[in-house]
Amino acid sequence: MRHDPLDYLSRELDALKQQGLYRHLRILEGEQSHKTTFDHRLVVNLSSNNYLGLTTHPKLREAALEATRRLGVGTGSVRSIAGTMDIHMELERRLATFKKTEAVVVFQSGFAANAGTVAAVLSKEDVVISDELNHASIIDGARLSRATIKVFPHKDADAARKILQDLPSGQRKLLITDGVFSMDGDLGALPALCALAEEYGCIMMVDDAHASGVFGANGRGTVDHFGVHGRVDIQVGTLSKAIGALGGYVAGSKALVEFLYHRARPFLFSTSHPPATAAACIAAVDVLEQEPEIIDRLWDNTRFFKAGLKMLGFNTGLSESPITPVIAGDGALAMTLSDRLFQEGVFAQGIAFPTVARDKARVRTIVTATHTKDELQFALDVFGKVGKELGLV
User: Annotated catalytic residue: which of 48, 130, 182, 240?
Assistant: First the structure.
């Protein structure tokens, strides 16, 4: 009998189970919504990135259906060969206008947008100066570029300055931060980093995945929120979270976008978005521009839920966004918290090492615009009950 060369993976999985960190995939039965059914259980859903509820918005549904009827279900090619449709160019034009930049290029995912862009614009002679809590896609892009990677402590612009002071003035440098950090929900030190980038001649880049549709006028992101238009060279956004569909994009100069058309490997080697997805994204931009009150509802719900968790005595870190971690510390404890919440009717996924530090395990909650106050109060009551049971409050 042939020896299984992958049998070590089973041992790794057994170790996860022994540590209380093994997770199975929760199965969604129905549409992504604020209250829905996972694994045959009706729960208040606090684990979705569907900030504005656009996954089921009537305008996005109809746009997707109309595009499918008119253009089919797929494109049959990568963008650089035969897969660029009018609808893709329209989406990029609409996003560029929305983001107040010269141009936009759309990628198949936010991960591809980050990793593909960093890897394309840098080489092994260059250097990346990166916040220690930046998203994995930024880290992977930096590794793929083969550039030297310098990491500064979270949001510490003074530490970033010290790194820059020691680098040759003629060396190409990319200074990069998340706009909203996906695990802690706090904002990047964007104004201070923009000033550093200008002082030291860096390319300034921000990953605004969790800020898109959430921060700034009509959800334009942290560049708009902080008023630093024209000071960020590369803006990455997502179409998969608040926008409600799928994909990512890079906004910047026309030269940047045209270069990425020619050199970004995810763009060059992945089939383009189905017409339905592109059409839904265009409709989402319409909603952001025409229905800004939906963002107001998101923030009203966010403030209500944060205040409730604080009153209960949970450790919610330094969150400044609808992402609110409930920090348990120990990984197994965080997973137990998540499981008990689920049993009581609240879905808040547990997150542990290596996604977060070993002593910072948590459940991550995300409030949406479509939650009702009754649903959020129910979730708070469950958190209070389970938190006392586990000694967290």
Answer: 182
